[in-house]
Every structure is written in structure tokens, then in C-alpha cells.
């Protein structure tokens, strides 16, 4: 089997069989409880020893092909000095350091990984470039019935911010078309707005997407567009004149400096901000600019190559509004988005990229769903629980459990679902989800306060797939795959906006998950019963975590949320917990 690893932020691992079929995948933050965990996924690697059936023949590392000695030292220090919950904090050791003499950073990381795995020392290592790994994710998600345009866009990685390739469904060949420098990063430009008012770069961009709907057009849009140039499907950022202008391009090329680049991009945003009245207008401006630029890139390559399928990966495509706009482009038939589109997905994409380059990647579907966490049984052990409030539990049959959950939801209760293998990626898909009745709009402010979340962020609906066309305006009903994984927004039909207002954003859109009984039998049956009782086959589905914490991993994480009053009940496959 192949083991793929992402070493940077959203650190993760993935395991596939020899054809590339995804068997297991998990982000380290779920185990370490450190949001956007950075570095070697040590806890996940350690857990592999409990799964001897996963015999690793090769380890493929993506995201850090050009790893530096400084980054290597940070990772080694984190492993040594932060052996438990603090693992993953990005240490800044004094350098040059006498502690480590790193002549070959890759070799040192390989030795550290083998030490954690405690497996044979003869395992082969392969390193894959950052955006080749993202393109691997796009390849993994691509429709296999026709050729596809593969697009990767993010902040930066290995000196690049994006790449475009084509996938030939008959030969399996992937041909490179274009590479984008990190100096021309739409992702970094968007992140600069995220950072402007004390949100966190590479973490809170989704807040900007939500906030943009509250903003208005301003001359800030023109300023941003004036600093973007797209010729023949290639993007180039135009910096301000002076020291922070064109010279920064030379400085960054010479030094690889990220700080100079970030300062220069921040300067463009500072200038745009002078033409706005509030932060919502600046959010509107960057969202408008991103959409216009990416649509122009997609449109150029689609028309040039006459390819109607597009497959996307990279952090820029965590932007669900952008993905909707791409799907609505004339000439686009099918849009695929790898469900773990940000760097967490690189652990899988690096394997797929490497296997494809060798002609070994299967031409069949590479994953059935995103329920890919460790396959563990969850059971409550009161003697091991150190929570602050007494927890009661009730064993209950599956059928009675569905009826009980619906009864609780209809009475206004907030129910956390903890079942099966956890989801791989940023979206809760029913195994680590919080379910709420969506008929009361005021529930947003009530639950957001309990979960410590930002009030302008909309909740997302979960819907029986058969009801998709009843409630939503879908551009192409042959392209529903993105809605299995909540990677795209759509318009809510006006006749139903007032039926479930808690999941409708101010612009009339929602980010739904369409679910089948094959995907998640328990959630499907809950929705069926809720519809039978209320006439509405829609529930709120939000991730089971408190704000700024990773989505829950263990049952103890979920019961802790119960004792902190984040939810009223926690349900597993056959047990109900309450205080």
C-alpha cells in the first residue's frame, strides 16, 4: 500500500491500495486538537501501528518538495519538545542552531517518519511538488467519462500559486499547460483581506465569502482589477510602484522571501480599502475580483481546448460561491471539486500524482465517499471520563433512535451526531455533525452563541437527494457530485425560503449537502422522519465542534461539547447521551 503525507498546514496522511483507491485519510488536527496543525502528522502515524493490515510499501510526500533546513528543524523541534497536545505549534528556533546539523532536510524528515512508524527501514520515499499534488487531487476527483481540465489554485507552495493541466480519460495522460508563480497569487490576495481585520490567513477565508454578500460595489473593485492582468489564461499581479512595487518581484525571486511578498500584496489591499466604507464592501470587492479573474482563466482554457469538464483543487476552491459561478459558465458541463480541496487533501493527491506519472493509477473512481477516518468503535467508559457534568446515557434501538431524534429536533433541541468513521476534509457530512430544526431563523444567533461562532456565517442544510430539485435551483442536475460534499452553493427557490430560513444566506443561496441512503443511512432516515412530521425534508447540518477547534475526533471530544452546553444531546448509532 501507499502512504501519502502532507507536512505543512492541514497536516494529514492518506493510504491507498496499489491502484490508488483511497482506503484511509485523516488530518492531524483531529487527533492533536491543534487547528490547522503544521508539521509531521505524528499522532496519525503512530495510530497506524493499530492497523497492521496497512502494510506500507512506499511513502509519498507532497506539499514541501523544496523543504528548507529551517522548516525541517521546526518540524524536528515540534516532534521532540511537544510530544502530546502541543504538537504542531510552529516553533521558531534560533538559527543557525547547534542542535541540528541539517545537510539533507528530506533525509532527516524521512528518518523521523520511519521512527514514528516503527516499520521497516527500507521503505521507499518519493517527494511530489505542492501543485502537482493538488493536481493529483483534481485528477482523483475528475469525471472518468470524458476529458477534463485540471486546475489548482491556492496561496503558495514550492514557489507556485497554481497550475493547469489536462486529463485524457482514454490514455490517462496528464499534460501540463501552465504554472503560476507565488508572486501572482490570487489566494494570497484574498488572504490579505482575511488578515485585514484580524481574521487569520489560510483559516478564515470562508468568513470573507460569507461577509461579501453584505457588501456593495465600490471603486475598490476597480483598484483590485487594475492590479490583475490575465493574458492567454495566465495571471500576473501588478504591484504598486516604488520599493514595494516591481522590485519586490526581483527580491522574491532572489531570496524566496515570503514576508516581502506578503507586504507587497497587503499594500494593494490597503489601497483598495481607502475606497470602501466598511469591511463588508472590501469583502465584496475581493470576492468579485476573485470570481472575475478565475472565470476568465477557466473560460480561456475551456474554449481553447474545447473541454467541458473541469476538476478543481487547492484552497481557492474552498470558495463555494466561486465554484457555483464556474458551474454556471457557458460551455462547462461538469464541475468536480476534491472534497478536501485545501492542503489537507495533498496527502491523497501526492499518491495519485505519483501513480499517474508511472501509468499505475486506476481509471476507475478512486473514492466512494469521504468517511475515511480510522475505523474505531466508540463506546462510553464512565470511569475514564473526567468531564465537569454528569452524563446520562440511554441504549436505544435504531428505529426508536430515529423517532427520538426527530422528536428532540422538533422541540428545539440541538443534537450532535457522532457515528462511524469521521469525514476527511473541512465539511461535516453526517458522521460528526450537529443537527438543528431550520424553521426558526433566530436559531442562528442562539446556536452561534453556544458554539462561539461569527453571527454572519450561514448554517448549511442537509437534504434528501430526491428533494434537491424541489427546494433548490440547480444549474445542471447531471452535476450533483459537488453537493454530496458541500463544495458549492446554489440558489434557494423563493417559494421555500421562508420554510427553512435558518439555512438561507442573505443573498438567497445555500450550501446544501444532498444525501442518499447509501451515503448515510441514519441521517437519511432522520430526514425522512422529520419530513413526515413537519412537511420539510431539510435540517441544519453544521460541523460538530466549538468555534476555532477542529471537528471532533473521539467520543470524548463530543461528550466534552455536551458538558460545555454546545449541544443538548449526543447520539451514536445506538446510544443517546444527555446531562
Strand content: 15-25%
Derived from helix and strand composition plus strand pairing, the structural class reads alpha/beta
Remind me, CATH topology of the largest domain?
A: Nucleotidyltransferase, domain 5
Q: How far apart are the first and last residues' alpha carbons, in Å?
A: 44 Å
Q: The biggest beta sheet, please?
A: 8 strands, mixed
Number of helices: 19
- CATH superfamily of the largest domain, please? ATPase, nucleotide binding domain
- The 3D shape can be described as globular
Mean pLDDT: 89
What's the architecture of the largest domain in CATH terms? 2-Layer Sandwich
Return the CATH class of the largest domain.
Answer: Alpha Beta
Radius of gyration, rounded? Answer: 23 Å
DSSP, total strands: 23
Spans with pLDDT under 50 lasting ≥5 residues?
A: 83-96, 253-257
Query: Strand arrangement, largest sheet?
Result: 13-23-22-14-15-21-16-20
Quaternary state of this entry equals: single chain
Number of domains: 3
> What is the percent of helical residues?
25-40%
Explain how this protein is built.
With 579 residues, this protein is an alpha/beta fold. It folds into 3 domains: 2-62 and 66-127, 2-Layer Sandwich (Nucleotidyltransferase, domain 5); 143-340, Nucleotidyltransferase, domain 5; 382-578, Carbamoyltransferase, C-terminal domain (DHBP synthase), CATH 3.90.870. Helix 7 (205-212) packs across helix 11 (279-305), helix 8 packs antiparallel against helix 10 and helix 8 packs across helix 11. Residues 83-96 and 253-257 have low confidence and may be disordered.
Amino acid at each position: 500500500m501507499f502512504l501519502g503525507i502532507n507536512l505543512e498546514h492541514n497536516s494529514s496522511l492518506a493510504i491507498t491500495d496499489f491502484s490508488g483507491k483511497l482506503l484511509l485519510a485523516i488530518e492531524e488536527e483531529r487527533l492533536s486538537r491543534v487547528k490547522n496543525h503544521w508539521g509531521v502528522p505524528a499522532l496519525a502515524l503512530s495510530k497506524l501501528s493499530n492497523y497492521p493490515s496497512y502494510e506500507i510499501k512506499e511513502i509519498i510526500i507532497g506539499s514541501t518538495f523544496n523543504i528548507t533546513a529551517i522548516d525541517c528543524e521546526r518540524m524536528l523541534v515540534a516532534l521532540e519538545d511537544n510530544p502530546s497536545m502541543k504538537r504542531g505549534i510552529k516553533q521558531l528556533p534560533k538559527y543557525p542552531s547547534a542542535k541540528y546539523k541539517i545537510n539533507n532536510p528530506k533525509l532527516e524528515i524521512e528518518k523521523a517518519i520511519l521512527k514514528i512508524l516503527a516499520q521497516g527501514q527500507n521503505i521507499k520515499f518519493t517527494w511530489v511538488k505542492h501543485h502537482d499534488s493538488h493536481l493529483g487531487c483534481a485528477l482523483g476527483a475528475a469525471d472518468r467519462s470524458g476529458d477534463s481540465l485540471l486546475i489548482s489554485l491556492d496561496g503558495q507552495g514550492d514557489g507556485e500559486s497554481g497550475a493547469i493541466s489536462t486529463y485524457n480519460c482514454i490514455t490517462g495522460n496528464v499534460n501540463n499547460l501552465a504554472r503560476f508563480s507565488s508572486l501572482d497569487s490570487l489566494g494570497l490576495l484574498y488572504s490579505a483581506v482575511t488578515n485585514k481585520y484580524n481574521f487569520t490567513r489560510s483559516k478564515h477565508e470562508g468568513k470573507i465569502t460569507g461577509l461579501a454578500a453584505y457588501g456593495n460595489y465600490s471603486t475598490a473593485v476597480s483598484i483590485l482589477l487594475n492590479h490583475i492582468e490575465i493574458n492567454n489564461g495566465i495571471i500576473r499581479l501588478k504591484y504598486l510602484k516604488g520599493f514595494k512595487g516591481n522590485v519586490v518581484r526581483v527580491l522574491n525571486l532572489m531570496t524566496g522571501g515570503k514576508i516581502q511578498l506578503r507586504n507587497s500584496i497587503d499594500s494593494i489591499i490597503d489601497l483598495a480599502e481607502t475606497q470602501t466604507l466598511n469591511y463588508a464592501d472590501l469583502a465584496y470587492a475581493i470576492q468579485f475580483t476573485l470570481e472575475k479573474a478565475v472565470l476568465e482563466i477557466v473560460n480561456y482554457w475551456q474554449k481553447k481546448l474545447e473541454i467541458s469538464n473541469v476538476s478543481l483543487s487547492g484552497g481557492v476552491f474552498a470558495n463555494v460561491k466561486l465554484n457555483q459561478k464556474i458551474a454556471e459558465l457557458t460551455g462547462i458541463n461538469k464541475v468536480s471539486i476534491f472534497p478536501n480541496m485545501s492542503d489537507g487533501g495533498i496527502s491523497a493527491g501526492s499518491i495519485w500524482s505519483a501513480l499517474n506519472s508511472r501509468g499505475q493509477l486506476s481509471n476507475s473512481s478512486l473514492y466512494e465517499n469521504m468517511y475515511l477516518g480510522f475505523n474505531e468503535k466508540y463506546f462510553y467508559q464512565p470511569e475514564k471520563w473526567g468531564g465537569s457534568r454528569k452524563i446520562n446515557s440511554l441504549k436505544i434501538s435504531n428505529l426508536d433512535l430515529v423517532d427520538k431524534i426527530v422528536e428532540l429536533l422538533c422541540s428545539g433541541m440541538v443534537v450532535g451526531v457522532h457515528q462511524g468513521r469521521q469525514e476527511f476534509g473541512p465539511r461535516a457530512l453526517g458522521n460528526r455533525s450537529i443537527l438543528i430544526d431550520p424553521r426558526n431563523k433566530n436559531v442562528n444567533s442562539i446556536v452561534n452563541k453556544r458554539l462561539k461562532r461569527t453571527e454572519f456565517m450561514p448554517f448549511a442544510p442537509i437534504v434528501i437527494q430526491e428533494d434537491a430539485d424541489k427546494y433548490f435551483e440547480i444549474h445542471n442536475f447531471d452535476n450533483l457530485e459537488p453537493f454530496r460534499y458541500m463544495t458549492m452553493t446554489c440558489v434557494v427557490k423563493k417559494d421555500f425560503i421562508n420554510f427553512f430560513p435558518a439555512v438561507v444566506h442573505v443573498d438567497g443561496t445555500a450550501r446544501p449537502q444532498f444525501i442518499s441512503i447509501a451515503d448515510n443511512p441514519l441521517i437519511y432516515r432522520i430526514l425522512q422522519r422529520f419530513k413526515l412530521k413537519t412537511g420539510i425534508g431539510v435540517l441544519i447540518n453544521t460541523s460538530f465542534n466549538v468555534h476555532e477547534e477542529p471537528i471532533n475526533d473521539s467520543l470524548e471530544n463530543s461528550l466534552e461539547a455536551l458538558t460545555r452546553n454546545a449541544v443538548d444531546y449526543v447520539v451514536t448509532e445506538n446510544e443517546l447521551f444527555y446531562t
